[in-house]
Queue: 3 jobs
Job 1
Amino acid sequence: MLEYIKLETRRTLRDTMFVIFGIGMPVVMYLLFTNIGTDEGDSAPWRVTAMVGMAAYGALGSALSAGIGVSTDRSTGWLRQLRVTPLAPSRVVTGRAVSGSVTVLPGIVAVLAAGALVNGVRLEAWQWTALTLLLWVGALPFTLLGLGNGYRLSPQTMGVANTVGLMGLSLVGGLWFPLELFPGWLASVAAYTPANRFADLGWAVTEGSAPGPATLAVLTGWLVIFGSYAVASYRRAARTA
């Protein structure tokens, strides 16, 4: 399975569109959101909050993109080849999830680097480390969601599904705008969305604390849901491939 993970990781990192939209776009959006129309003296807290939100946004987009390769594999017959190997469905999905998680890391690091080097964000060394690791590991549910979609949808449909999913989860989850600006009922709903709790992993660290038990519980629940969806989708695709 290790060789399979290496293969899928290399394939993704060679994709020019992934580099542009998965790494470059979140950095550009972060710098625009925090440097246009804001007073430098009053924007320091917002630059930290937005940094975490945009790093989470980039990670979410990269994680969902893991399904694009899966969908392409289905159309080229690669899934049929996997079906005759000794790999169990859970191991195939796990291998894809691991390789997808590896490709999430560059986008996170790029946004955090922009925060530190361009916007002057200052955190303790342990905070930078914890922030990177938590956002990296915390993106796993979205990787599984992307894989589940990839095993069910065509390559053309995947592009639309990823765009709708990324924008919807990001907006409702408060990755672009603070929940304090939301209507009360929407803020209550957003608190239970996977994107909001994902970003909360990072926001907690920047405030010098560990993620709360509610955040961990909600994310774990979404991990189980999306993981089950990915395995079920793979089994369905294997039967019909």
Note: The mean pLDDT is 85.
Job 2
Amino acid sequence: MPLGVRIFLVYFLFVGLAGWFVLSTVMDEIRPGVRQSTEETLVDTANLLAEILRDDVKHARLQQSRWPELLKAYGLRQPQAQIWGVQKSAVSHRIYVTDAKGIVLLDSSGVAVGQDYSRWNDVLLTLRGEYGARSTREDPADENSSVMYVAAPIKDGTQIIGVVSVAKPNQSLQPYIERSQRRLGWLGAGLIVLGLLIGGVLSWWLSGSLRKLTRYAQAVSQGQRAELPALRGGELTQLAQAVQKMRTELEGKAYVEQYVHTLTHELKSPLAAIRGAAELLESDMPAEQRQRFVANIASEGARLQQLIERLLNLALVEQRQGLEERVEVELHDLADGLLQAQAARIQAAGLRVENHIAAGLVVPGERFLLRQALTNLLDNALDFTPPGGELRFSAEIAEGRVELALFNQGEAIPDYALPRLTERFYSLPRPASGRKSTGLGLNFVQEVAALHGGELALSNVPGGVRASLRLPLA
């Protein structure tokens, strides 16, 4: 199972359980919380009524007062109040008053007048001087039928002369409880979903970063050129940099060993020629023969210098993982500059040169490397073009790429050599001298093309050879 999926599952389990526990706890606290709030209001109401009713109870004129009529009118009121989205169309308080013995003197419902309520906790405890409250079910089988009763003492000085109780059915609170639970449920579910979504995004981001590092490590292990992925996050960035540093150190060691071996092998032939010519020069010989051996030494020395310079340039390109700059390079002017630099050689060979690259055509890349690559292609073309032959630069745009081509008139490349021309140190004899080059030029061009996200293609075409450098436009 992928690491990102495992992280998400753990996160899902943690957030889900934590969200469920918190939501369940809060849901369970809504009902008692609302009832506690209501009880506090009932306490205030009962104590207010106790003060208002005191004189009527003291002088035993409660039944002759307007209280029965007022309470009856109160019970018939229809508030039509809109309370936080809940419609309240009837009053729900019940009020009854007892004397000091617990006998009901007044009842807003009109059903308990004359009954003995002295054993009900609200009346019993209040007459004892304690806080009197009770919760009683009207239907013993229905828990939602419970009614809260809160009483307050009616005092004459310090003597308790009666009790007033205020009752409220819990059923009247149910719409507010359900509304709060419903709103909290939606809010809690939304927060849990949001938390899981954030967890999913974080897991996807972490998995994506790890996949980038994995692909980078796999590309490195396969010897491919790959750029260090751009990662955000302290530890991931440090890990990427550590992998890059390890790669650089390991590749550097292997690269040096490979190049020392290769350079040693390639230097043997010119050094042997120089040493043999030097030994022969120690003996007496005609001036003309001496001059020929001196020329051989100079030629082999130049070959050594060219070999070393080409190896250094190739090593520089092969070790790079990306471009140091990316600017717009105008191809027509670049080709013109190279042809002018080789004007003396072109004129001496009587070659016909054409530049068919459209003015203004540009590709993004590193100007120096592209110039070096085209220089190598042009040198190769000049070496294999016979006197009076033709050279032609052209460029075409297709499928988001520019195909920069150099045609040179000359003999076709042998079939056995075509797939090997970009190999390091592989070269064909030059028609004019019969000598081979360093065999590093086309390998250099191929590396430059790869750095730019392109490719090099060599092919035989009617009348000559075509070298194509395919580069992306963006």
Note: The longest strand covers residues 146-156.
Job 3
Amino acid sequence: MPDELVLLDQWASPFALRVNIALQEKGITNYVSQYENLHAKSSLLLDMNPVHNQVPVLIHDGKPVCESLVILEYIDEVWNDKSCNLLPADPYERARARFLADYFDITFSTFLSKIWTQKEVIEYDEKKDFINFLKLFEEELADEPYFGGNNFGYLDVALIPNYNYICTYGMFTKLDILAECPKLNAWAKICMERNSVKKYVPNELKIYEYVHEIRKRLLGID
């Protein structure tokens, strides 16, 4: 089948990072990564994703696939290598992985948006809610190395690009994520050793500086 692939990409977007990691895990390296300046979006991005005008967009043989979780499923279905499937084989487990990934995106964005746009100190109750949110995923991990047990899969790919944003939230709110969520930290450490993750996920300091710069621009602070 044709493998003409273009990824409309952005280095700090956890959503775009997901797609890079998934392609790498599938052994797909013959694609073009086109960096997008989200303050001056290309005409290609606007044409390929007219609904949201956001990255990532995977353009496969001229046809766009939008939204990162949808793209992960598309990659898994098109390049259906049984030895490296992202989604679980069991229908219930597939549905659960999809639900948890979607729940993470919706819920984490509400927490993260506060440090982008709020000058005031984050209150204790909200910080407690954030830790409880992370604890839910710790419970899902149990004592396994990955959310997929011994297999690095869909939910791991969906969550690991966000880990340094989780740490950044902790730094801004003075939460000790390592102490509060040891299982999640152990999982992240294992994931960060994978070549697909090391290649694309920026380090914690780089993400912190990126968020700090956005805060300065949006809030007019130093």
Note: The mean pLDDT is 94.
